[in-house]
Amino acid sequence: MSQPVVAVNAHLLSGEASYRSAGIAVYIEHLLRYLPRVAPELRYRVLLGRGRLPAEVTLPVSRSRWPTHRPPLRIVWEQLVLPWVLRRQRADLLHAPAFVAPLLTSVPTVITVHDLSFLRYPHFFRRSRQRYLSTMTPWACRRAEAVITGSEFSRREIVAALDVPPQRLHVVPYGVAARFRPLPAAQVAAFRVRRGLPERFILYLGTLEPRKNLPRLIRAFARLRSAVPEAHLVLAGGKGWFYQTIFAEVTRQGLQGRVHFPGFIPAEEQALWYNAATIFAYLSTYEGFGLPVLESLACGVPAVASNSTSLPEAAGGGALLVPPEDEEAITTALAQLWRDAELRASLRAQGLRHAARFSWERTASLTAEVYRKVLGQDTEVNG
Question: Which of 131, 179, 296, 315 has the most crowded CB, counting CB atoms within 10 A?
Answer without folding.
Answer: 296
